[in-house]
Amino acid sequence: MKIQIRSGTSNARVRQITVREKTIYVCKQCHNRYYSYYFFCPQCLGVVASSTKHSSLLQIISCAPGNLEETAALLAQLSAVNAFDYAAALKSAPWVCIAQTDPAILKTWKECLEAAQVRVAIFHSAPPTRTSRRKLLPPLFAQDAPYPFFLPPSLTEEIRGLAASIASASLKLQWSETASLAFHLLEGIYRTPSERILFVDFLFQIEELLREFTRRYSSPKWSESGFLKRCEKLKESFRQMQSEIDAVREKVQDQL
Predict the structure, then answer these.
(1) Which of 4, 54, 77, 186 is the most buried (most CB within 10 A)?
(2) Closest Cα to residue 160, out of 39, 78, 79, 76?
């Protein structure tokens, strides 16, 4: 929305103020409202969605020929979509990969792809295209793209399902903190150049630790004290991983 302000004189300069609607994110499960996007609701690990529709899009500008196979595999993993001709789409770049999606989600996609040495840009409307006879390939997501899947969708659902099954508010919060800590670890690795290679073992470890925990407590019969103890132990494992990552980052920075 744009507002124009005029003073009383006829030759006065017109001032224009642009007002944008504040995007609110709402958890579909507990209905908490946030001003920032979260993949997992911090309170209940529910699905958080934007309150407004978006027209922003993500375009892959170029991908090095020697990097096509790796980028295709990364896109398949982060999108959880296997039935797509990524190689053809990447070869036809510039390619609108994602359309009509929340900029907060696009920003993370952009950082993950840039960490894999792919040139990417976010546009708030369709970018200009050169006249060409080549066939334009459809986007991977035409609208409302999901946040990158740093974990398999099935495991993500198990994580959410465990939170929903916990009756105790304090235990639910403990599990939410644990799962969120793991997710932030994964997010940091994927968004930082070279760390997906340096810490590939952590990617597997985090996934396996979460899978083991969720399956252990998928049964309704378990003790609260045992749950709390194992939850704290799991958090400590993730904190230790984060400390090792931070130490490597600090060492790299010192060498620059």
Answers:
(1) 186
(2) 39
Torsion-angle region of 167 (φ positive above 0: left; ψ -120 to 50: alpha; else: beta): alpha
* Burial (Cβ within 10 Å: 0-12, 13-18, ≥19) of residue 241: buried
* pTM listed for this prediction: 0.85
Using the 8-state DSSP alphabet, how is residue 47 labeled? Answer: B
Which residues have C-beta within 8 Å of that of residue 37, sequence separation ≥ 6?
25, 48, 50, 102, 104, 105, 147
pLDDT per residue as tens digits for the range 162-209 = 999 999 999 999 999 999 999 999 999 999 988 888 899 999 999 999
Q: How far apart are CA 177 and CA 42, in angstroms?
A: 7
Compute the distance between CA of residue 170 and CA of residue 74 in angstroms, rounded to an integer.
37
Confirm if 100 and 40 have CB atoms less than 8 A apart. no
Task: Tell me what pLDDT residue 210 has.
Answer: 98
Domain boundary assignment for the chain: 153-255
Q: Is 8:21 a contact under the CB 8 Å cutoff? A: no
Per residue in 70-86, pLDDT (tens digit) is 999 999 999 999 999 99
Per DSSP, the three-state class of 57 is: strand
